[in-house]
Amino acid sequence: MMDLADISARVIACERCPRLRAYCREVARTKRAAFRDQEYWGLPVPGFGDPRARLILVGLAPAAHGANRTGRMFTGDRSGDFLYAALHRAGFANQPRSAARGDGLELRDAYISAAVRCAPPENRPLPEEFDHCRQYLLEEISVMRRIRVFLALGALAHRQLVRALIAAGRIEPRARFRFAHGACDRLPGGAWLMASYHPSQQNTFTGILTAAMLDRVLRRARQCLASQQPSGHAAGRRPAGAALND
Ligand code: SF4
Question: Which domains does the chain have, with CATH numbers?
Answer without folding.
Answer: 4-226 (3.40.470.10)
